[in-house]
Amino acid sequence: MKTCVRRLFESAMLSSALLSLASGVTPVAHADTFISFDFPDAVFTSGLGLNSRGDIVGRYMDRAGVSHGYLLGDGDFSSIDVPGATWTHCNQINSRGDVVGRTTDAAGVTHGYLLSDGEFTSIDFPGALFTTAIGLNSRGDIVGQYTDCAGVNHGFLLSEGDFASIDPPGATETHANQITPRGDIVGLYIDSQGVTHGFLLTDGDFSSVDVPDSIETTADGTNARGDIVGRYTDLNHVTHGYLLSDGDFTSIDVPVAIDTRAYAINPVVTLSEFTGMPTMSVMAFC
To answer: What is the DSSP string of 29-93?
Structure first.
């Protein structure tokens, strides 16, 4: 599969406000430059996280069908595999170069992990059947998702060695996806009607994040400035990425793509993955 990077400068995005849609979502302006990259000899490459230095992490699949994590820094790829794991997935990297993700062991159990200074540490919410570490900040706080013994999915925060569950009021399922240096958390939850919403948790208070005229919204990434990125599905059941900045939503759609999803944002650019063809996976920097 092909993975591409699209660079869209902030000034181009802001100028697209003149093209505001009736739904209240601004379409993104498009630049002309694409840079395609693939992990060497991989059949699939996916990008999921980036930091303020522009380092990228994600996963790739080799020709034997095995999934590995990777780091792309200063133009060089490095494979990331948890020792003894059958499957490794990198979700996010912070400014210090620490990486979090999830891995499956030989028994088929999924664990979260932290890779810091070359050392792997397993992350397992107490009593959980399944744990994945999805986001982290520069202080080392980690957020993610776990499945309890009843099969219910919850978000979690791991800070200074202590776990705390994260569940917006009325949620039947929660994923915590990213945390800022000041401790604001974004994620998604499903309500009692089965509708998916994004959420922002700040100073102990939850607020929903919903793109206007959407049937579902997720909040997948945030940065220190409070910008939020994610995906939404419109009334025609088409999936788009979006940026929420200073209260304004901007839609992110890669040309010819049928599906766009924004997963992470740093202070300068955003990272998205989308599928434009059945065999193509794309990352977009905006």
So the answer is: P--S-EEEE--TT-SEEEEEEE-TT--EEEEEE-TTS-EEEEEEETTEEEEE--TT-SEEEEEEE
**279 pLDDT exceeds 60?**
no
Distance in angstroms (rounded) separating the CA atoms of residues 284 and 276 = 12
Which 3 state secondary structure label does DSSP give 180? Answer: coil
- The percentage of residues in the chain with a pLDDT greater than 90, rounded to a whole number, is 69
Grouping H, G, I as helix, E, B as strand and the rest as coil, residue 70 is strand
pTM: 0.83
Contacts of 34 (CB under 8 A, 6+ apart): 4, 5, 6
**Structure-token pair, residue 79:** 């494979």
Look up residue 95 and give its DSSP letter. Answer: T
Please classify residue 191 by burial: count the beta carbons closer than 10 Å to its beta carbon, then call 0-12 exposed, 13-18 middle and 19+ buried.
middle
Question: What order do you get walking across the sheet with 44-50 strand by strand?
Answer: 44-50, 56-61, 67-73, 76-80
Give the residue-averaged pLDDT of 209-236: 95
Residues in the chain: 286
Q: Judge whether 142 and 180 are in contact, CB under 8 Å.
A: no
* Integer Cα distance of 45 and 37 in angstroms: 8
* AA identity, residue 163: F
In three-state secondary structure terms, 16 is helix
Q: Give how far Cα 160 sits from Cα of 30, 134, 141, 163, Å.
A: 42, 17, 7, 9
**Residues in Cβ contact with 145 at an 8 Å cutoff, skipping those fewer than 6 apart:** 131, 132, 134, 153, 154, 155, 156, 174, 175, 176
